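Hey,
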Amino acid sequence: GLPVAPPPIAMSAEEAAAGDVSAAAAAQHFEDVEHASKATEELVVGDDEEDEDSGEENAYSSDDESEGGDLEWNIGFVEPLPSDPAERRLVIASMNRHHFPCKVGGKPAWLDPVDVPTLKQLKCLYTREPLDFLMQIYAPVDDEPTAFHRSIFVFVSPHGGDLHRPGAVRVFRSQLPRSNAFYPDEPARVGGPLQELSDAQQKQYDSKNDRWADRPTDVGSLVRAPKTFPERELVVEPETFDDDGASGSASDGDGDGDG
């Protein structure tokens, strides 16, 4: 005889609604991924509109690769500013680029002060709006001469609800050898003289139109400065483990000496 069609499956209104929501969420996810993928292709393939005369790779490259193996972890702590005015001035001065800071908020202290990321690179790949600077970590590599100085910069979408979207958080890496055009071989003293940019270096930096640049303005002119988070020092220490396997930092305490 003819094949019998299977009976319809009973489904409550709540189950149907849940299925619609799941399907919509999945569709939105694939749409977001496709959007970010196309935006990344445009960023890489069509980047000559702003970098056509550079002739070389931008010093600030996006970190997408990851490596396995045994890793040592560091923990960062945001330090409040000292209440003493003199100490406060020293801490603020120590977050200058010449002192290779770890910090959150404020303006980026660019490691390479000339070849900074372009405006196009610092756009959210989801909303196409300019990203906000969140934090930077000084992370040199001891056994890599070209990364004697290395800093990691983190930028985020201005919309907190979009941070889970592809391309709404971007991380850039910048590195320099010990002998370079911007810093002496030995670190500068906080409060001491600093090596400033030459006229040619300053001109090259100005051509990048850095959003966070300090520029003199005419009296009465309206300048929209980028939004910044409160600037604080970020103290980074290696993660330690006690005998029970609980993690902490080297500054959590010296122990009681009982082993």
